[in-house]
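Lecture notes, unit on binding sites. The following record was shown on slide 14. It pairs a sequence with zinc ion.
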Amino acid sequence: MQAATDDIRWMEEALEEARRAGDEGEVPIGALVVYGGDAVGRGANGVERLRDALAHAEMRAIRQAQAWLGDWRLEACTLYVTKEPCPMCMGAALQTRIARIVYSLADPRWGAVESRWRLWEGANRQVAVSGGLLADASLALLQKFFVELRRRKKAVASRKGAGYLG
Ligand SMILES: [Zn+2]
């Protein structure tokens, strides 16, 4: 079960990236691109700080991996991500020919691996996908983030006067 052990280790690192994003006020999602036993790309969600809707964790990790390897082809790479990729990120994974995608929490609303869309079906290349790894940890991070976000919004609302934000 060496492969499974490695998958857990890498997903834990992706969860670290997610935590980092959360600490900086981002929705906590993290990603890693692994090549030959090394992490060659790391990404934490950066949409708010960078004011860039394209700065999803996977996009940032894929960019870094391309730069690191000096190649846009990531054929021998695995993408680890703490939430099922959206259509943009799944598209990027297909464009860069990533061989394998391991995600943690499924996303019924935006998931483009299998929950809402199966974007890789019909693509003219093979990609191995698996989901659900350490999904409880990923879910806990996201839930904690949104609970805190609601608390902060409520605090702001009460400072501004009751009823201001509904
Ligand atoms: Zn995405």
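Take-home: The beta strands are 30-35, 38-44, 77-83, 100-105, 128-130.
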